[in-house]
Amino acid sequence: MNKLDASVTGVYVITVTPFTDSGALDLASTDRMVDFCLDLRVTGLTVLGIMGEATKLTAEESRVFVKQVLARVAGRVPVVVGASAPGFASIRELTESVMAMGAAGVMVAPPSTLRTDEQIAAYFALLDETLGNGVPWVLQDHPWSTGVQMATPVILRIIESSSTCVMLKHEDSPGLAKLSAIRVAIERGQVRRVSILTGNGGGLFLPEELSRGADGAMTGFAYPEMMVDVCAAHAAGRVDKAHDIFDAYLPLARYEQQAGIGLAVRKHILNQRGVIASAFVRKPGPTLSAADIADIARLTARQTRRLTEIA
Amino acid sequence: MNKLDASVTGVYVITVTPFTDSGALDLASTDRMVDFCLDLRVTGLTVLGIMGEATKLTAEESRVFVKQVLARVAGRVPVVVGASAPGFASIRELTESVMAMGAAGVMVAPPSTLRTDEQIAAYFALLDETLGNGVPWVLQDHPWSTGVQMATPVILRIIESSSTCVMLKHEDSPGLAKLSAIRVAIERGQVRRVSILTGNGGGLFLPEELSRGADGAMTGFAYPEMMVDVCAAHAAGRVDKAHDIFDAYLPLARYEQQAGIGLAVRKHILNQRGVIASAFVRKPGPTLSAADIADIARLTARQTRRLTEIA
Amino acid sequence: MNKLDASVTGVYVITVTPFTDSGALDLASTDRMVDFCLDLRVTGLTVLGIMGEATKLTAEESRVFVKQVLARVAGRVPVVVGASAPGFASIRELTESVMAMGAAGVMVAPPSTLRTDEQIAAYFALLDETLGNGVPWVLQDHPWSTGVQMATPVILRIIESSSTCVMLKHEDSPGLAKLSAIRVAIERGQVRRVSILTGNGGGLFLPEELSRGADGAMTGFAYPEMMVDVCAAHAAGRVDKAHDIFDAYLPLARYEQQAGIGLAVRKHILNQRGVIASAFVRKPGPTLSAADIADIARLTARQTRRLTEIA
Amino acid sequence: MNKLDASVTGVYVITVTPFTDSGALDLASTDRMVDFCLDLRVTGLTVLGIMGEATKLTAEESRVFVKQVLARVAGRVPVVVGASAPGFASIRELTESVMAMGAAGVMVAPPSTLRTDEQIAAYFALLDETLGNGVPWVLQDHPWSTGVQMATPVILRIIESSSTCVMLKHEDSPGLAKLSAIRVAIERGQVRRVSILTGNGGGLFLPEELSRGADGAMTGFAYPEMMVDVCAAHAAGRVDKAHDIFDAYLPLARYEQQAGIGLAVRKHILNQRGVIASAFVRKPGPTLSAADIADIARLTARQTRRLTEIA
Lengths: 311, 311, 311, 311
What we know:
The structure is a homotetramer. The first copy, chain A, is 49% helix and 12% strand. By secondary structure, chain A is of the alpha/beta class. The first copy, chain A, has an eight-stranded parallel β-barrel, surrounded by five helices. In chain A, helix 2 links the parallel strand 2 (44-47) and strand 3. The longest helix of chain A has 21 residues, at 290-310. Chains A and B meet through helix 7, helix 10 and helix 12 of A and helix 7, helix 10 and helix 12 of B.
């Protein structure tokens, strides 16, 4: 009943996976993190994404974590699970397991070995066959991390050939033109509607993406209220207000998007905000220097000040 | 007499190459662009960089353009010329030609085929040999476009083994830790001083980079006054003022840094500002949609307003 | 007692994973394949390598397959298990599982995201820590599939810092100079001895590699007797004989090394030879055309003829 | 009058660029090399390819070398010139220059930055526009060096949209299926005929490629007579004879195809054969060790012996 469908709008937060200081799964922090997101009125959650340290979990840990999240969410919002893996056997195993627990759908990015349009289309045709009829899935377009560039015609072809592909997580660069092209194709009836949530650089283009027809955001940021408030202002037709809010968060959002240390920045802030008990990142992973932490302190203080000014 | 040396601080603007609407070199706009930059009190210019469409010029056009820039600058500031090329023969040819005209030095990035530390060090040893003693050069570290990751030890090794390497154009990501490490190595005397100018994402981390010991910026942005003013505020010890200025420009700077269309955005704004007569970008190259142009109009209007607020 | 150590010489065959025509694990064929290899007097087996379709197996299937192989081998030769995975948690899980069953060691290749010498060394330091003291491991150097180039100094550094690294599976290109350099470093005592087995292009440089000091081969080929006989002739000082044998197999070995369809060629021949009941390759995977099959028929017939001539 | 057209069959040898021991262009050796190839009855020559060290020549040296080759050939066979460059301005410049001198056409490979079908098609549409009507060109498909995978539909699209594309230099891997698919498309009239010459790994699949409908070979090898004789035997319907000849050369051809040192091997042999006065390779480039040279001596001696046996 809580399955993902093509009508979704709003904000899906990509969550971190909380660990204790000794590196074990921290289920109490997991609960707190779920509460934190739901209190902010997000539309859904996405777990085990790139920023969820999915590859650093054992299969058993993945199941335990997803189960905990689903139990805490208790059906209040849909939960999408990242299921990208080197082979279809692992994708099928994880998918069956999390769908049985109550996940709303899975998200899959293309493996970095794909190059041509034919290879990409063939991969997702096989994914469709692997997932079967009952599993709604999200096509993750993230060339920056996968190295795979999926042109608009290929994305339309994938949507056309897999009726269970209900959402595009859009992150290409330059993404605005592509987003416009896909939205126009949907509006003209060239392809059926899918939900388009954007994640470009952790939401770094959110106001412009909403103007181009994005249905919302699916991304991670230590202040998910930014995405929620920007989307709300935009939905209310207050475009300049949406920009004001966005601009207040932008200096920190930009800092959190640094390749390599972004996850450590995010966990540090979530820890400072009292959401997770430890900022621990499993190896191999980044650690913050004193200078990094000072940067964050300055940026959050400035952000608080600016938010007050525009309130 | 105007040769680049390791003591440089300040802002080197990476210029565009102006064309007419029919795609020919526009030397009048070239003059105006030089004047525009010098009026903004930049410390130097860098031409024929990635954003200078260098690969789209014939060898003859490159020479004509550099000559025009040097004539207009007339020795008032140093001019660095991008000299990256697929082979050393071309690098030598262009270098000899532009140094004879009065360039201050050349800038070279590693070719995308390099992988190991040994290969990178060997490449720049050969470059040093190719350039010879009289040519100061800038090591361009730009993994995003070259795909080559140069770790700190390799950069130190290159500086150590080439006495004519006088500057690092720093653009790695995450760059702050690397910048700190190189600055510390210089301060401890592990390696001789080189100037470090940063370009990360078009200056998207400039305030933090200055705090880590960067000597300034070498990058392109349609509002070079941002770099000049941020550096000046920082040099005056007014760090929060530097952030205020930076934050006012950040929404547009972020927009201009979109992969793929950034150059078209920059030329469009420079054209709007009256600097260049045409926003023409040679093929293959991006064009802006009506929606892109509307985005830019909104962002520049908001920027003007915000700059007034903080003035 | 059957743990891998640094003194190994000879031929380790990289086996396929046999499936039935419907794609299920074929344990009877697995037994036959083990017998086939041991009858050919190979020194060891390597399972779940790139050509073992490891990523297409579920975790449970991997365990079942390894268990079957180990039971059939019954301690007669050491069995190495490929354990490369996107994260250390999975590597640890699989390793613990297969070592408990009686595997002789594991083989790990660097993930494709590594670039600099520092990153590579750090990765294998973490691997050493992950595997712990009791697990001998093979460093797999296969730039062609991983995209990671490990220069000789890095390989020596890894050997030096992990006492349980007992073998190098050497496959770089050009590999002969690198093989010579590592062998010389061992002979000069710059680094402790590790076994060096080569796999360059499915053994396509075996005679030359043996002359440079390789201890043998670790690779897959539908005619493992080629590697066994070439190594034997070489060990007996009959270098030209080694070349004669090698040359007889080379046209087919070359054909089997075609990127993309090599595994299908190998399984087809193993099926023709009566070793495995089906040539089935799991998706995504290559299939052979009638023209491919005709090519193989011609090449195997010519090979048989040539082997008779030189017998 | 000697322009390349779509009816070409036979062998185009990709030549080296001969240097003196001090690294200067060696025009006397250039003449000898031309004579050597023409005496072997090759159908055409290709100069300034990847193995022609094109990127290590100045623009002026390129012109001098091409002029010398054309003068010596004196219209007896067509000469194709490699014109791949980072930008269209350079491609146009070189093309105009060599066509004016009498070249038969140019060869262009896609730049390594291209990924999607759309990007590839757009690149070659722009190339077509750049070259103009009078310049026949060869589409070079060499994913191994360019990293660009051009699927069959894209190649057909390029042929369809550029009437001056008269030849495909086919080198993909696995190439046989692709070669068959393109040949079938031509036979069925889905696309107009282009000549297909193959170069897979320096001709390492030549007999099979001829069976699939290749029109001949365009590749480099220190024994061009291999390609000439294999093609002749095949054209005469003596397929097994073609394989016999091929197999005799295969051990050396394989050795010459080692990534990284292949060019040094080829120049060494051409020097030994008296064709070029020096085996000098410009930096950055490989050098041969004593062990490499001993390998080559053994392989050439064995090749001579085997050729006698099958004569």
